[in-house]
UniProtKB/TrEMBL annotation:
Class of enzymatic activity (EC top level): transferase
Enzyme Commission number: 2.4.2.9
Organism classification: Bacteria, Pseudomonadati, Campylobacterota, Epsilonproteobacteria, Campylobacterales
Stated family: Belongs to the UPRTase family.
UniProt-recorded Gene Ontology molecular function terms: GTP binding; uracil phosphoribosyltransferase activity
Pathway annotation: Pyrimidine metabolism; UMP biosynthesis via salvage pathway; UMP from uracil: step 1/1
InterPro entries registered for this protein in UniProt: PRTase-like, PRTase_dom, UPRT, UPRTase/APRTase
Function recorded in the entry: Catalyzes the conversion of uracil and 5-phospho-alpha-D-ribose 1-diphosphate (PRPP) to UMP and diphosphate.
Cofactors named for this entry: Mg(2+)
Keywords of this entry: Allosteric enzyme, Glycosyltransferase, GTP-binding, Nucleotide-binding, Transferase
Organism field: Malaciobacter marinus
Protein's name in the database: Uracil phosphoribosyltransferase
UniProt xrefs under CDD domains: PRTases_typeI (cd06223)
Amino acid sequence: MYKESTNAVVKHLINRLRDVRTASNEFRLTIEEISRMIVAEALADFPTITTNINTWQGPLDVEMLEVQKIVLVPILRAGEPMLTGILQTLPYARSGFLAMKRDEQTSLSKLFYENIPDNLEDKTVLLLDPMVATGGSLIDGIDYLKDIGAKKIISLNILGSPYGIEKVQEAHPDVDIYIAQIDERLDENNYIRPGLGDAGDRAFNTK
């Protein structure tokens, strides 16, 4: 299953990302804001637990997300602002990291660093990858997480192509995808069009 956001505010923020005048700091903050909105959609029906808190009128039993069952895994480096944004909402969620780089000649991704918490079998892993162009990096990330025991994976994304979404769904039909917007197509270089450029470079001002 994939779900593209219909939220007008999300669309507004996506177009802020597209604007070449958007500086790297604002670009990162905008990704953080979109990520908080997307994770709210993805976890709308997530299990809750009863927790007793102290309120201004005394103790109260309330329903809270079972955050201990959530693991956030960004694909670095572009996924880092997504992690930062979501941790503002879910500060006690555990985090892991996958570092992958796309070969510009072959469009294939290579994993060169990982640091993932143990015992993923009873956790929900939120895989954070801003761009889904060919879907290669996302598929490889899901492959790796499943290989080390993840049973429930949800993909959170900012922008994608119809081709990339289709490929991810073909490879992993059990993974739900929540994405802010799906653009028109890929070009001959496998870049999303109209897109917003390289999310990692724009977020960290590396080019």
